[in-house]
Design brief:
This protein is α/β, with parallel strands linked by helices. It has 2 domains: 338 residues, Rossmann fold (3-Layer(aba) Sandwich), CATH 3.40.50.1820; 147 residues, Lipoxygenase-1 (Sandwich), CATH 2.60.60.20. 31% of the residues lie in helices and 25% in strands. It contains 12 helices and 20 strands. Helix 2 packs parallel to helix 6, helix 6 crosses helix 7 and helix 8 packs across helix 9. The longest helix has 26 residues. The protein binds 2-acetamido-2-deoxy-beta-D-glucopyranose (3 copies). The site of one 2-acetamido-2-deoxy-beta-D-glucopyranose has 4 residues, from loops.
């Protein structure tokens, strides 16, 4: 983790020093608009190549926006929607491998779609600040292309979905804002929209919700160094998804760096630095490939609140589906949605909120136990899931946790709740007991857990579990208690459950 931070720091330093040596200022961005006008006058010099994906040509079939016959030649079907993929900054001047995976995923699920790759490599294969500056021109070229489609074959822009990765997200935003007329492009998806030189800019200088009828974004690498992050942190869409908090992604840590370098040599390093950034792409591809494993995300203020299981509500648009199949609800304000994911495809996990009321019988002492839970469902079991408490347990209080499962266990039927502890721990506990005078008879003091309330994010089901042994509710170190669905009391408890 530490070394990766170091690598990404290097990457950012590189970007940053380049930015300084080239003296990027917003003024220059405005200057580039003049440059664009020159490009627009002369279609021949369009820097963007529009490659329509066909099964027969690996490179894609080139559509030239002043040559109507190329539409026919490439078998562009104007009665089908158009998805246009826009890549980002290019280090080596070649289209990255994910593009073909994305194309294949789109085609496998939605055969009735035109898929075009907007290839702007010649202007993306530059120092980062130059490439960033070029996003405006490319956005304008895409806008002109869509206008041409509209004029020549009455192809409606509302049938267009732009999917832009990194700088490509801002390219898409500019395309949406430069297209003439009042109607907007149908949808823009920003995949980890680039941060440096866009973070904190006004909505007209980056991807923003008013660039299309519907805008969604997935933020996967917003880990910050010296005020800069590869991916933009701020919300830029109607729905902004922050998988695992958006800063960094599971499976992208140091062990994988070593593996990659061993396997691929030095290119392994850049691959790993890109890992979290590019995760946004693979999450989107995942949503296309696994219809039955759609990841759900939930509205929350921040990841810390989310990690306490506080945000699993789906009421009033509070949750949405990540990726292609998102519910296209347009809200006044950007909504930040959080979710956990696995380290690989399919990325979906199942989110549960656990709400446990503890009574610590030793009021003066704070205990910091380690708990594990084992869950029995109608389909599967999940065993020994650790619960990490952020604070010690004092007095008489309700604590909430987030628990995620890789598998669908079906309906939750039984919970085994264990206070992990060694003999040493049990000894300490005994010592504590002898120090503190105990007056309530000969029963050993402990933690009392009467009920466990559970909410399943994916099904929105709420359940209450009662201790199986009603007469012995005390929990001690190294002890396990079994909780089953409460009988008959469910209605009464439901009211208490927020
Ligand atoms: C275009 O797509 C429509 C709808 O699927 C189909 O009916 C039509 O045959 C297609 N046109 C061409 C030229 O393939
Ligand atoms: C715990 O707190 C609740 C209300 O906050 C109170 O009714 C109850 O008596 C307390 N129980 C103990 C054992 O302190
Ligand atoms: C639930 O309540 C009903 C009537 O109120 C009773 O007949 C039944 O035995 C109860 N079930 C359990 C599991 O306690």
């Amino acid at each position: 983790m530490k070394s990766l931070s170091f690598l990404s720091l290097l990457l950012l330093l590189f970007i940053f020093t380049q930015a300084n040596t080239h003296g990027w200022k917003r003024k220059e961005a405005r200057g580039s608009q003049h440059q664009h006008i020159r490009i627009k006058k002369n279609q021949q010099s369009s820097a963007t190549k529009f490659r329509l994906y066909t099964d027969t040509s690996e490179e894609g079939c080139l559509i030239l926006s002043d040559q109507l016959e190329t539409l026919d030649k490439c078998s562009f079907n104007d009665s089908l929607p158009l998805v246009m993929i826009v890549h980002g900054w290019s280090v080596d001047g070649m289209l990255e491998g994910w593009i073909w995976k994305m194309v294949a995923a789109l085609k496998s699920q939605h055969k009735q779609t035109n898929v075009i790759i907007a290839d702007w490599l010649s202007l993306a294969h530059q120092h980062y600040p130059i490439a960033a500056q070029n996003t405006r021109n490319i956005g304008q070229e895409i806008a002109s292309f869509l206008e041409w489609l509209e004029e020549s074959v009455q192809f409606s822009r509302s049938n267009v979905h732009l999917i832009g990765y990194s700088l490509g997200a801002h390219v898409s935003g500019f395309a949406g804002s430069y297209i003439s007329g009042t109607n907007k492009i149908g949808r823009i998806t920003g995949l980890d929209p680039a941060g440096p030189l866009f973070e904190g800019m006004s909505p007209t200088d980056r991807l923003s919700p008013d660039d299309a009828n519907f805008v969604d974004a997935i933020h996967t690498f917003t880990q910050q160094h010296m005020g800069l992050s590869v991916g933009i942190k701020q919300p830029v869409a109607h729905f902004d998804f922050y998988p695992n908090g958006g800063t960094f992604q599971p499976g992208c840590h140091i062990m994988h760096v070593y593996n990659h370098i061993a396997q691929y040599g030095i290119t392994g390093i850049t691959q790993t630095v890109k890992c979290a950034h590019e995760r946004s792409v693979h999450l989107f591809i995942d949503s296309l490939l696994h219809d039955d494993k759609q990841s759900m995300a939930y509205w929350c203020n921040d990841i810390h609140t989310f990690d306490r299981g506080m945000c699993l509500s789906c009421r009033k648009n509070r949750c949405n589906t990540l990726g292609y199949n998102i519910r296209k609800e347009r809200l006044q304000k950007s909504r930040r949605l959080f979710l956990k994911t696995r380290a690989h495809m399919p990325f979906k996990v199942y989110h549960y909120q656990f709400k446990i009321h503890f009574i610590n019988e030793i009021h003066e002492k704070q205990v910091e136990p380690t708990f594990t839970v084992s869950l029995t469902g109608t389909k599967e079991d999940a065993e020994n899931l650790p619960i990490t408490l952020v604070e010690g347990i004092t007095g008489n209080k309700t604590y909430t946790f987030l628990i995620t499962l890789d598998i669908d266990i079906g309906e939750l039927m039984m919970i085994k709740f264990k206070w992990e502890g060694t003999a040493v721990w049990a000894n300490i506990w005994d010592t504590v007991q002898t120090i503190i005078p105990w007056t309530k008879g000969n029963r050993q003091p402990g933690l009392i857990v009467k009920t466990i309330r559970v909410k399943a994010g994916e099904t929105q089901e709420k359940m209450t579990f009662c201790s199986q042994s009603v007469d012995n509710v005390h929990l001690h170190p190294a002890q396990e208690k079994t909780f089953v669905r409460c009988a008959n009391s469910s209605r009464r408890l439901k009211r208490k459950f927020r």
